[in-house]
Amino acid sequence: MSALDTLLSRLHKAQRTGTDRWKACCPAHDDKSPSLAIRDADGRLLLHCFGGCSTEAVLSAVGLTFSDLMPNQVMGHFKPERKPFYPGDVLKIMSFEATLVYLCATDIANDKPLTESGRERLLLAASRLNHACEVANNGY
């Protein structure tokens, strides 16, 4: 089993989003909708949690280490990649979160109060949108 197959088998709601790209719920935080982007870049697995979790935290939550992802590679001998995620990946996550914000705003405009869990999810959506903007502006 490849490192990618092992990782994907341990993630919830993992699905392909494009060539060599996947999304899944992040195992390092209470994630109900996919916020973890995964990319296979020439044998290197690149992970990015739009909820802000570190790669180490994600790997630890599924019982893996960096060496499990790249068993035949020498750590630290890769040419740095400036843009590990396609803009389309960022836009898909932003679109989902923006839709959630829109639905909450519609409820508020119609005098329907948000539940506590609704308020928490709205704050998470705002955090993810802000983080996605930072990722897009920084180019990684």
Determine the N-to-C terminus distance. 29 Å
Order of helices and strands: HEEEEHHHH
Mind describing the biggest β-sheet?
4 strands, antiparallel
Shape: elongated
Oligomeric state of this protein: single chain
Average predicted confidence as pLDDT:
84
Q: Using DSSP, what is the number of strands?
A: 4
Number of helices: 5
How much helix is in the residues? 40-55%
Computed over alpha carbons, the radius of gyration is 16 Å
Give me the secondary-structure category: alpha+beta
Strand content: 15-25%
Poorly predicted ranges (pLDDT <50, ≥5 residues)?
none
Tags for this entry?
4-stranded antiparallel sheet, 140 residues, alpha+beta, elongated, 2 domains, single chain, 5 helices
Structural write-up:
By secondary structure, the chain is of the alpha+beta class. The chain folds into 2 domains: 3-69, no CATH class; 87-138. The protein contains 5 helices and 4 strands; from the N terminus they run H-E-E-E-E-H-H-H-H. The chain has helices spanning 3-9, 55-61, 66-69, 87-109, 116-138; strands at 12-18, 21-25, 36-41, 44-49. It has a 4-stranded antiparallel beta sheet with strand order 1-2-3-4, with helices on one face. Helix 4 (87-109) packs antiparallel against helix 5 (116-138). The protein is elongated, with a radius of gyration of 16 Å. The two termini are 29 Å apart. 23% of the residues are buried. The model has no long low-confidence stretch (mean pLDDT 84).
Task: Give a quick summary of the entry.
The protein has helices at 3-9, 55-61, 66-69, 87-109, 116-138; strands spanning 12-18, 21-25, 36-41, 44-49. The protein is of the alpha+beta class.
